[in-house]
Design goal:
single chain; about 650 residues; alpha/beta; Rossmann fold; 3 domains; nine-stranded mixed beta sheet; seven-stranded mixed beta sheet; 22 helices; 22 strands; about 15% strand; elongated
């Protein structure tokens, strides 16, 4: 037969448990306070008046008792009876002056506490003045004044703080009861980690509950921050995670190197902990995101790229107050160019894009950034000479960043005429028009695939470089032309990273062309920042190369992306090797045999020495005219043969 007492307990409603009865009482108290304070102005004012007056009267009364060890002489008892309501009234006026009658009792911040301290300091100052300059009976003794000051602040602050704590307990328990809270360990007990913990602790229904800090700083280890213990070093994460039953780690070290982040990610993956990052220092400083907007660890966090330090003054001098035109403005590079150009306050920004959807997307992004700077989104094809001439004549840009291009290697390999039409002829036409309309600087966005090219896309960009060099050397030209080469950018449309992510989402396999294929990678903001930096240094005809760090194996990229997605390479998601595609190299190069590098004022920007100019293949007008005719009449194989005569280092892909 079951235990009767056990059955009776089980039959009780959950709300009748002692903890829930306490919570219900607290909710009732908080609710009554809020209803009283939120009823009418005079009801609210009267309630606050009663609360404050009672506390201040108790403080003043107790100060006399403490001064005489609870044996107050009759004369001072009489003095207290005469002064108490005058002093309390004066303090109430001062509290009103410092905004304490406008605040809600169950909310208490540092600003409220400061108001209380200043008001009570003023009241004590008045009493001290009366003690020194008036009749002795007109003011309390100095010991009473000091004790009253301490008690008044203590009672007012304690009452307000207790209501805040009750509200926090009731509301937070209600929220946390509905939301599963992940136990969080915060790596980094500095300013960023402190701000993150404070924000999360203040919003206890968010599903994230910080329980411990970890740090390598021996000065911080063993202390506490916002009531949370600071443990360390970070290498001891395994023990800390087990002791505190952690579900997740947040890296709150925005300045941590990629190497350090990778070590932490590998350790957390081994422990089965989810890892997220706080935003970068730049994003926090610019106000783009808030401290609590943590994000997953991305591939770019692990690639070993050190932050780029730009000469922002030089870039600002280049752009500020000038009209700037960007072609290919809807692409990954073009859109980021527009964002960074707007940040440097041009007089006007002109966006040229062939694809309306891409232009629509970038316009939506720029609308919130323009801050009063005029900008124009124009649908136009750079190969349309009449249209581009009209745009240049209307807007008179002083700077042109030419990012419009066909860039997909296998697609262009099958359609070489389109690559040449857009990348080479389009650049040549636009360069000639820019020179004729007095553009100050023309910057071509080129590629490392233009070096010893094996693809039509690469050779079309190499010919584009030759075309702008030819215009640079024409007698009537006054425009400064330059090209900037760099490799793959992370996350750009059509690049390998989005393809891998899509394949992982679909369950695999992830397809890699070759086990040993390597590529250079940069982040989009990093590449664009260095393009702007290079644009400040050109004097005419240069080809700049960006320092892209060490090449990365695509196989390693695939493995890291699979692991960052929470899967195991070769177990949950397979990696398949499918062979090099038409036009692709096993590895990219930084220079061909006729070129060498020299340093520039910026360590991440290099200038090519002995780079062949546009006259190396004869007059540009002649070979451009031949290309124009050949595009419409020759087969892809014939076009590739023609390209070998124009770019001798071009080696067509033979698959």
């Amino acid at each position: 037969m079951p235990d009767a007492s056990h059955s009776a307990d089980a039959a009780l409603p959950r709300a009748e448990t002692p903890d829930r009865r306490i919570d219900a009482a607290l909710r009732a108290l908080i609710g009554s306070v809020d209803r009283t304070l939120g009823a009418t102005h005079w009801t609210r004012y009267g309630a606050l008046l009663v609360f404050y007056a009672a506390e201040l009267a108790i403080a003043f009364y107790t100060a006399y008792e403490i001064r005489w060890d609870f044996d107050t002489p009759p004369d001072f008892v009489a003095q207290r009876a005469v002064l108490i309501w005058t002093i309390v009234g004066c303090k109430l006026l001062l509290l009103h002056s410092f905004g304490q009658f406008r605040s809600m009792l169950s909310y208490f911040s540092l600003a409220d506490f400061s108001g209380i301290v200043v008001a009570m300091s003023a009241a004590s100052g008045i009493m001290l003045g009366l003690w020194y300059f008036a009749e002795p009976a007109a003011a309390p003794p100095r010991g009473v004044i000091l004790a009253d000051f301490v008690f008044s602040i203590g009672l007012l602050a304690a009452f307000r703080l207790s209501l805040r704590m009750m509200r926090s307990r009731v509301i937070d328990q209600n929220k946390s009861g509905r939301v599963f809270e992940r136990r969080i360990g915060i790596l980094g007990a500095g300013d960023v980690g402190s701000a993150l913990a404070k924000d999360l602790l203040a919003r206890r229904g968010s599903g994230l509950r910080p329980v411990v800090f970890l740090d390598d700083d021996s000065v911080k280890i063993g202390r506490s921050l916002h009531g949370l213990a600071v443990r360390g070093p970070i290498s001891g994460l395994a023990d800390v995670a087990k002791e505190n039953q952690l579900n997740e780690i947040i890296i709150a070290m925005p300045s941590a190197t990629p190497k350090k982040i990778k070590e932490i990610v590998d350790l957390c993956r081994h422990l089965g902990l989810k890892v997220e990052l706080v935003p970068s220092v730049t994003q926090l400083a610019l106000g783009e995101v808030k401290i609590d907007r943590v994000r997953p660890v991305e591939l770019e966090d692990l690639l070993g790229r050190e932050p780029v330090n730009l000469d922002s003054d030089e870039i600002a001098r280049l752009i500020e107050g000038r009209t700037v035109l960007v072609t290919g403005a809807g692409g990954s590079i073009g859109a980021e160019l527009c964002r960074q150009i707007l940040a440097n306050k041009p007089r006007e920004l002109v966006l040229v894009e062939q694809t309306e959807i891409a232009l629509f997307d970038v316009e939506g992004d720029l609308a919130a950034r323009a801050a009063g700077i005029p900008w124009h989104g124009l649908i136009a094809d750079v190969t349309d000479e009449a249209r581009m001439a009209g745009i240049l004549a209307t807007h008179r840009p002083e700077l042109v960043f030419h990012a419009a291009a066909h860039k997909h290697v296998p697609l262009m390999e099958r359609q070489p005429g389109e690559a040449l039409k857009n990348n080479t002829l389009g650049t040549a036409h636009l360069a000639r028009l820019a020179s004729g309309h007095g553009v100050g600087r023309f910057i071509l966005i080129s590629t490392d695939k233009a070096i010893n090219p094996t693809s039509v896309m690469g050779v079309s960009k190499r010919l584009a470089e030759k075309a702008i060099q030819a215009v640079q050397h024409s007698p009537e030209n006054k425009t400064v032309f330059m090209a900037v080469r760099f490799g793959n950018v992370l996350g750009s449309s059509g690049s390998v990273i989005p393809v891998f992510k899509k394949q992982i989402t679909q369950g695999g396999p992830v397809t890699v062309t070759h086990p040993d294929v390597t590529r250079y990678f940069m982040t989009i903001p990093e590449a664009v920042g260095l393009v702007l930096q290079a644009a400040t240094q050109g004097t005419g005809g240069e080809i700049f190369v960006l320092d892209m760090g060490a090449p990365v194996k695509i196989h390693d990229v695939a493995r890291q992306l699979i692991e960052l997605s929470g899967y195991r390479p070769g177990v949950d998601i397979e990696i398949e090797f499918v062979g090099l595609r038409p036009g692709e190299k096993l590895f990219e190069e930084l220079q061909h045999s006729e070129e060498s590098h020299e340093a520039t004022p910026h360590p991440r920007v290099l200038r090519l020495k002995n780079a062949p100019d546009g006259n190396g293949t004869g007059p540009a007008s002649a070979w451009l005219g031949e290309l124009r005719q050949a595009i419409g009449s020759e087969t892809p194989a014939q076009l590739r043969a023609r390209l070998r005569s124009l770019v001798p280092e071009y080696t067509p892909f033979e698959g």
